[in-house]
Design goal:
Pfam families: PGM1_C_vert_fung, PGM_PMM_I, PGM_PMM_II, PGM_PMM_III. This protein is 34% helix and 22% strand. By secondary structure, the chain is α/β, with parallel strands linked by helices. It folds into 3 domains: 9-194, Alpha-D-Glucose-1,6-Bisphosphate, subunit A, domain 3 (Alpha-D-Glucose-1,6-Bisphosphate, Chain A, domain 3), CATH 3.40.120; 198-424, Alpha-D-Glucose-1,6-Bisphosphate, Chain A, domain 3 (3-Layer(aba) Sandwich); 439-498, Alpha-D-phosphohexomutase, C-terminal domain (TATA-Binding Protein), CATH 3.30.310.50.
């Protein structure tokens, strides 16, 4: 029985004035996306329209989510609108799930034009939580400023969007689904793929899996406690750490992705991953880790709850790259860190005689450095670390880095970190997360803070804390000139560094 082609409709709409994406895409309360008429559709149309029509026609895009509430409904809208806007093929994770690192990996593997990731990272899920949409470009990394500005420009004048409302897909069925559309010569194709497989294959080519497996299964096996925090990482942890590398099934907890992440923010830090901290303090496990909702950030704990701050974690990885087959084969080109990250990495770079780049907050700034061959390893103070294997920070890759280093050095987490401090010195930094701030109060606070720290009188001031005296070594309103394309980023974050005298 012949079926009629699916109609393509043009729907009239009105623009919104708050759809400029930020560092991690567009993030709003879920109720805004779900309840405001055409809010989701407007943004997706703006995103698709930011791609040149000639590049868009017949191209391939990747779509994935961290499984939070509203993801399935949003995925269906994205499919309907991608089809109506000339996209030829969508590659989507099974049940709509793909970690952010996996999306970056797949984009690069299949040479897609980009990918849409439905995530609000560590923010709460559920109907009263947050929802977000990220757009990663063809190199697999987050959108650069030029793309975000183009999306914003389109969103401010948008009057209509295109959609195929009758198009339905089955996210639970692996394989290819094809659809005939009106006014289109070739069928529109959707491929539902295994969420883990392509990413797993990449990791096999980076690490010595046999060495890690020996660490986790030998007579003196390292006992793990891994908390997926009911985000997207559950299937990855089960498949890779347990099935592939031999960790017992009970090594991993909270591995079922839930729309509200079990009622807790999926934030891998000492506050929200407190159950992991408590379990590690008992001394029964030698290595613990937690991941955020979309799997790009992580936290590492050693035996008895020994905490590895993210700046130290990055520096330890840099100092031990020889333990990883990928870096032995590819070589190490240089390092990069966000300006808010401690200078621990700088000491390693100096010892290895490698370039060190200091960038603004936002992973997109690392992409140019990696694409141009300047940077092999990079990270930021918010528990994000990655390398040039993809163009995103990568939580599970970071965990495998640590396990590889432990296997090579035959030491505990604490021993490795303390030896690193003894060799390179110990660096301290503070991070404070403020939530639900009044924007006006925040604006005036930052204005006044900037006025203080750029005042010449602030330089070389001394402060006494107990028996220690500290002097200000550096303070600035950070400005970054990209060494690849010369673009300038100003007014990032004001910071100061104080050293004991």
């Amino acid at each position: 029985m012949e079926t009629s082609p699916i109609p393509v409709l043009t729907v009239q709409t009105a623009p919104f004035d708050d759809q400029r994406p930020g560092t991690s895409g567009l993030r709003r309360k879920t109720a805004v996306f779900e309840g405001k008429k055409n809010y989701l559709q407007n943004y997706i149309q703006s995103l698709l329209s930011s791609i040149d029509l000639r590049d868009r026609q017949g191209c391939t895009m990747v779509v994935g989510s961290d499984g939070r509430y509203f993801s399935r409904a949003a995925t269906e809208v994205i499919v309907q609108m991608a089809a109506a806007n000339g996209i030829g093929r969508l590659v989507i994770g099974h049940n709509g799930l793909l970690s952010t690192p996996a999306v970056s990996c797949i984009i690069r593997k299949i040479k897609a034009i980009g990918g849409i990731i439905l995530t609000a990272s560590h923010s709460p899920g559920g109907p009263v939580g947050d929802f977000g949409i990220k757009f990663n470009v063809a190199n697999g990394g987050p959108s650069p400023d030029t793309v975000m500005e183009k999306i914003s420009q389109v969103s401010r004048t948008l009057e209509e969007y295109a959609i195929c409302p009758d198009l339905r897909i089955d996210l639970s069925r692996l394989g290819r689904q094809e659809f005939d559309l009106e006014n289109k010569f070739k069928p529109f194709r959707v491929e539902i793929i295994d969420s883990v497989e392509v990413y797993l294959q990449m990791l096999r080519n980076i690490f010595d899996f046999s060495a890690i497996k020996s660490l986790l299964t030998g007579p003196d096996q390292l006992k793990l406690h891994i908390d997926a925090m009911n985000g997207v990482m559950g299937p990855y942890v089960r498949r890779i750490l347990c099935d592939e590398l031999g960790a017992p099934a009970n090594s991993a907890v909270n591995c079922v992705p839930l729309e509200d992440f079990g009622g807790q923010p999926p934030e891998p830090n000492l506050t929200y991953a407190s159950s992991l901290v408590d379990a590690m303090k008992g001394g029964d496990f030698g290595f613990g880790a937690a991941f955020d909702a979309d799997g790009d950030r992580y936290m590492i704990l050693g035996e008895n709850g020994f905490f590895v701050n993210p700046s130290d974690s990055l520096a330890v990885m840099a100092a031990n790259l020889a333990a990883i087959p990928y870096f032995r084969q590819q070589g190490v080109k240089g390092f990069a860190r966000s300006m808010a990250t401690s200078t621990a990495l700088d000491r390693v770079a100096k010892a290895m005689k490698l370039a060190l780049y200091e960038t603004p907050a936002g992973w997109r700034y690392f992409g140019n450095l990696m694409d141009s061959g300047r940077c092999s390893l990079c990270g930021e103070e918010s528990f994000g670390t990655g390398s040039d294997h993809i163009r995103e920070k990568d939580g599970l890759w970071s965990v495998l880095m640590w396990l590889s280093i432990m296997a090579a050095r035959k030491q505990t987490v604490e021993q490795i970190v303390r030896e690193h401090w003894a060799k390179f010195g110990r660096h301290y930094y503070c991070r404070f997360d403020y939530e639900a701030l009044d924007p006006r109060v925040a604006f005036y606070l930052m204005r006044d803070l900037e006025a203080i720290i750029i005042d010449k009188a602030f330089m070389s001031q001394r402060f006494s804390v107990g028996d220690h005296v500290y002097s200000v070594e550096k303070s600035e309103n950070f400005e970054y000139v990209d060494p690849v394309d010369g673009t300038v980023a100003r007014n990032q974050v004001s910071a100061n560094v104080a050293l004991p005298q």
